[in-house]
Amino acid sequence: TPILVWFRRDLRLSDHAALTAACESGRPVIPVFIHDSLSQGLKAAPKWRLGLGLGHLAETLRDKSSRLILRRESDAQAALDKLIEQTGAGAVFWSRLYDPDSVARDSRIKDTLKQKGVEARSFGGHLMFEPWTVETQQGDFYKVYTPFWNNVKGRDVDAPRSTPGTIPAPDSWPDSDALEDWNMGAAMDRGTDVVRPFVRLGESAAQSRLGSFMAHIVEGYDESRDIPGADGTSNLSENLSLGEISPYQCWHAGLRAREEGKAGAETFLKELVWREFAYHLMHHTPRILTDNWREDWDAFPWQDDARAGDVWAWKRGRTGIRFVDAAMRELYVTGRMHNRGRMIVASYLTKHLLTHWRIGLDWFEDCLIDWDPASNAMGWQWSAGSGPDATPYFRVFNPETQIDRFDKDRSYVSRWIAEGRANPHEDALKFFDAMPRHWGLSPDDDYPEPIVSASDGRHRALQAYENRDF
Ligand code: FAD
Q1: Which of 232, 334, 347, 378 lies 20 to 30 Å from 107 when distance is taken between CA atoms?
Q2: What is the residue range of the signal peptide feature (predicted)?
Q3: Nearest CA to ligand 1 atom 9
Q4: CATH code of the domain containing 23
């Protein structure tokens, strides 16, 4: 009987434990994707990017004389039941996910399938270190990154699996929806034709980026990773987020680079472990996704009106603070933002503008093509000061001196800000092509005065912190 391989955030054929196991069984394999309530509930950019990823995966499967069967059904269980009935499948294999909604769905489905006599198997692959396998000497989970890193850094990490040579096809294929009918870009109010060229789509593109990163960039990564105007990081987060590349593939490439003596390789490995740490935290304290991780922060006087004028200025890159505005526009146009930018805009929103981190988290979730529930939540709570191992609240980034340190030649701010420039950079103009017309901005506008200056904001933030009643 056939095996259904249920794809979710693992859009690749290489190093795919569930697919490999299914192929090795010698039974026919039917790859499926179910557009259920969870994927339907994704926000604009992650949903659009998922749609692109699915289209690409379907092509890759066709090259292997296989197919991707698409079904839209809010209840994934119902979709699987129908597929099982239509194909006579005797097993469903998938790669494990870790956010609480997926965990609840998957464990329900596993139980139901088992009751029906259908084999249900989940495999690892999205993470290298299962969150429940890393514990302190007291048997607790980690709340601080460095000891977490020390615990895992020496572990054996499986070598990546290669792509199955053949994917055994069933005698007949079940029906599939047409991907276009799902209209996964419907919620993108920005011009997708502007964003599309910035997408690195699919597993072979991700692999070749990993190769060129290791050949040319990782050596200088210790410094270049902090310079938003440079091509100095791997840029693989969007592919990791959808599983177009596996963390094992990145890890082993990093280990090889370290053995070759490439200077930044160790730091790259550490960054991969930040991702693992974010998942570790989400697994053990799922409330990190929605609530202050440190409950004493519930008393902080956040401004939490998502429609407030200063929040609106922040979203549109019109705060009058160049580093902040450049980064917000990079986000809007490319669907990504450099890590230094993420830290600066998050600090500005939560400290200078005293705005609840949840508002920033939501906007990132709407805009990021590399959106990842665990890393986004950890990043925001870290920046706001409410999270585990967070930056202390009184460490307020000064967005002016950050420019002097990390954008010395101003290449980043001039790439993204058009106002006030005689010959704006072509990417700076793309922001105006991408934004919805009702935003009413023009490259000919004057560049605004700061809505809250670097020094006033710092002062306000520190005062709010001192007056807090926790
Ligand atoms: P590289 O520097 O090449 O690092 C390699 C990989 O390590 C990344 O692809 C990523 O998977 C992982 N990594 C690196 N830094 C971090 C980190 N601080 N936390 C977790 N993993 C990390 N990352 C996301 O993937 N999705 C998000 O939604 C996201 N939201 C964030 C929100 C805020 C407020 C902050 C401060 C950070 C956020 N990050 C998020 C983490 C980080 O900014 C990005 O992972 C990084 O910029 C991706 O670029 P890169 O692939 O070139 O990273």
Answers
A1: 378
A2: none
A3: 237
A4: 3.40.50.620
